[in-house]
Amino acid sequence: MKIVVVGGGISGVSAAYLLRKHTKYDVVLVEKEKQTGGKAATFKEEGYTIETGPNGFLDNKEEIKRLINDSGFDDNVIESKDESRSRYIFSNGRLYQLPENPIKLFFSDFFSLKGLLEIFKEPFIEQYMQDETLEQFVKRRLGKEMLDKLIGPMACGVYAGNPKYMSMDATFKKIKDIERQYGSLIKGLISMMKQKKAKASSASGPFSAKLMSFKNGVGSFVNHLAGNINRMEGEVVNIAKQEKGYRIDTKRDSIYADYVVFAAPAYALSKITEKLDNEFSRILNMLEYAPLSVVSLGFDKKNMPEIVNSFGYLFNLNDIKDTIGVLFDSSIFDFRAPEDKVLVRVMIGGAIKKQSAFKNKIYGTAVQELQRSASIFNAFEYSHLKRHTFAIPQYGLNHKEIIDSIKEFERRNRGIFITGNAFYGVSLNDCVAASYELISKVL
Ligand SMILES: Cc1cc2nc3c(=O)[nH]c(=O)nc-3n(C[C@H](O)[C@H](O)[C@H](O)COP(=O)(O)OP(=O)(O)OC[C@H]3O[C@@H](n4cnc5c(N)ncnc54)[C@H](O)[C@@H]3O)c2cc1C
Asked: I need a surface site. Which of 1, 86, 205, 436 has the fewest CB within 10 A?
């Protein structure tokens, strides 16, 4: 029996690795690029370790840790540095440090009195059970200031998203479910804290999970997994049903398989399935992606402002010009820059400023943004640009329709399984968890 896995990002590679390990099937991974990894790619240059996509994963989910352990890669895992835990929001022309305990924010000058009153009115806001956008939810329950200054920036940080279009159920379901269950977030959180008593102390704030990575970057882990898999380079363009199994056409050849796992982006899968199921292909094509340019800049440490020793910062939605976030990679992890240098990654564009991701003089933009928001006036000594036209899939109000149609498609086409960050979560953790889920379906 043969299984073909299409797409060699973390989703496809982890699925192929687990299939090889846990089944007796002949597993072949088909990836259109020479290199596996997809968005998870790392390279080294001039003493810097550059992540062109993700720089780590949170340690609060089991599956990725299990996979690291299972594949014998534990010795390469590194923790983010404790001293870099401080994170900031650039708002109204200055940087505000976010306290570890978010409650403390309410006793600082971060929110205006008007903003605080809106937040404290939350328990009296009427419950709304249906799905809605992140913007609708936060504005309705907590007010516009909370959206602009805290939740909106976080949505940009995680999804490169625009709160105007993000579905609560598809992106922040746990929070929406607190409203559904308790009628109010504040009431719900108090009740949950009481239930957990001492365990739910202030230590369980949004940043309590630790960011982890690998000594040689996230890409090294995907390459390590891929090293154990039979691979073929090729861009899949079509799939056709056979009497038994499927024929998968790449631009050059065709391969036959009993089972097919798709872990390619939604727009690619839409093209591949156009002939097999036109309606399904049309629905997949509705899934939009946010573009993002990742500008990596290396500086001499001398005369750099104190902020470069932190994790990084996000922007109040009203203060976004081109950049949605800045990360000080060399402060977050060891082994990212030479001893006396600083590695900064400036994230430009996202769903909220799509056109900025495609700007021509993007280094100039990054420099101006660093000057404006962090008073970094030093000249950079190293630079690299990675432009992602389709950086991160955006889960809108139609996401449930898309997931339902995937399940229906899988039912109609037995032996085809679909995974990937377009559907079941965008974090590395989500992608690996989806692979474990997929393995149990295949088995
Ligand atoms: C800039 C950036 C920063 C991020 N930061 C983080 C972070 O810090 N932590 C975190 O957890 N997540 C982060 N993410 C999200 C995370 O990196 C991605 O969601 C995840 O890596 C996606 O993996 P994937 O395998 O599902 O998709 P992809 O990585 O997109 O892989 C899909 C693969 O399919 C291949 N392919 C496409 N079409 C075809 C075809 N027709 N035939 C064959 N192959 C095809 C592609 O070449 C690609 O290799 C970040 C994402 C970006 C862009």
From this structure: 1
